[in-house]
Write the structure tokens for this entry.
Amino acid sequence: MEPASRSPLPSPLTGTFTALYTPFTPQGAVDVPALRALCERLVAEGVGLVPCGTTGETPTLSADEYALVITTAVEVAAGRVPVIAGTGGNDTRKAIATTRLAAGLGVDAAL
């Protein structure tokens, strides 16, 4: 039996990638302006973005907050650097669903 062929990534993932922390307002909402500023600062240095990586707060985000963080990172990166979404977890079905969601939001890869 022939092995299944795989599509290569459009470009190799090389360089430095930083797991982003998620900034919050004093009221507990995602601080989108602060997140945009953080992403822009890293993109300006050529650093790839890893929203919802392993910085600790990701498991506490709601589904809407998760999508907001990923979407914000993808929008700010605008193809200038890759975006790798953290999609793992302790529930396999949820991790698969989160990976599919992140792919639909335009990330370059998932971890």
Q: What stands out?
A: The helical segments are 32-44, 63-77, 92-104. Residues 1-6 have pLDDT under 50 and may be disordered. The radius of gyration is 15 Å. The chain is about 35% helix and 10% strand.
